[in-house]
Every structure is written in C-alpha cells, then in structure tokens.
Amino acid sequence: MTIVKNILWLVVVLFVQWGFLQDLPLTVYGNPYLYLWFFLWLPFGVTRIGLYAIAFTVGSIMDAFEQSGGAHTLACLVLVTAKPWVENALIGYRKSDDNEGVSHLALVPYLTTSSVLVLLHHTVLFTAENYGFDNPVLLVFRIFVSSLITLVLLAITHALFSKKYAA
Q1: Maximal C-alpha separation, the chain
Q2: How many CB atoms lie within 10 A of CB 154?
Q3: Is-contact 32 149, C-beta < 8 A?
Q4: How many whole angstroms separate alpha carbon 141 and alpha carbon 15?
Q5: Cα(71)–Cα(58) distance, rounded to whole angstroms?
Q6: How far apart are CA 130 and CA 57, in angstroms?
Q7: Residues contacting residue 87 through CB under 8 Å, at least 6 positions apart
Q8: pLDDT of 58-109, one tens digit each?
Q9: Which of 28, 140, 142, 167 is least enclosed, having the fewest CB within 10 Å?
C-alpha cells in the first residue's frame, strides 16, 4: 500500500508541477520546482538503490517534459546522494528502518534541511542547463530566485501536509 501511495503522490506532484507551476510568469528567471517535495517527503528507511531509482525516474520524466538533456536527472541524483548526509548533519542520526521522512519535523528544521538540498539541486540543475559558468551573475540570480520560490512552495506544502501540523 505504501508503494501505491507514494506513486500516487508522485503523479499528483508532477501534475501540479506541469499543470500549474511550469507556466507561471516567473519562469524567465525562476522556476518553482515543487517536485522536490517528493524527495523530501520520502521516509528515511528508503534504500540507497531505491532513492537512486526514484531520482533517475523523476529526473528523466522532468527532462522529457522540459527537454533539458539530463540536467534534472543529474540534479536529482546529486540531491538523493547528499540527502542522507545532510539529514544526519542537520537533524541527527536516524535509524534506517525509520518510516518517517522530514514530514514530521517542525517548520524551521524542515526549512533548514530543505534549503541546503534545494540550493544544491538548483546549483547542479542550472549549471548543467547553462553548460557551465559562462554568465555567473545570471546563474547565481537564477539559483537564488528559483530556490526562494521553491522554498516558499515547500513551506506551504509542509504546512498543509505535515504530520506535525495535522489536526
């Protein structure tokens, strides 16, 4: 049941990403990437190979829609590679059989963890999309604006769906 529930959440998140967020007027300098919520929402107990498979699949789907030549796949793989270390450093050690993700955290620890992972993801994504550091000012601006928009959406999503704030 958990796998089916996760797949349904992924479909919903990707639908919201492409149905509503992709064509916002901010897309010249900042794209909101709500699909990162799915990676943050995954429980700590997901195996490394499972994380890589999910990241590759989600990244490939995003690349197919955006025609970004593998940039999303690369950024998603980097994100899930760093995710356990960032969580351990910022949240503390979690047992591998822990079935909760960061969805149980209060807003400040959630945003701290999310900020590091979103900045890492966006840095890799936009650097790969720009094929390097040809225009570093625009690159940093895009990373900052997109990260800020994404973090606002992640905070709203966390407040709506977090177990910490559930009634």
Answers
A1: 49
A2: 23
A3: yes
A4: 27
A5: 12
A6: 22
A7: 44, 94, 102, 113
A8: 999 999 988 888 999 999 999 999 998 998 888 876 655 556 677 778 888 8
A9: 167
| Reported pTM | 0.88
> What phi and psi, each to the nearest 5 degrees, are found at residue 24?
-65, 150
pLDDT digits (tens, 9 = 90+) for 7-46: 888 888 888 888 777 777 666 677 888 899 989 888 877 8
- CA-angle at 108, arms to 104 and 139, nearest 5°: 110
HEC string of the chain? CHHHHHHHHHHHHHHHHHHHHCCCHHHHCCCCCCCHHHHHHCCCCCCHHHHHHHHHHHHHHHHHHHCCCCHHHHHHHHHHHHHHHHHHHHCCCCCCCCCCCHHHCCHHHHHHHHHHHHHHHHHHHHHHHCCCCCCHHHHHHHHHHHHHHHHHHHHHHHHHHCCCCCC
Nearest to 90 by CA among 125, 121, 116, 123: 116
Place of tokens 């993801």: 121
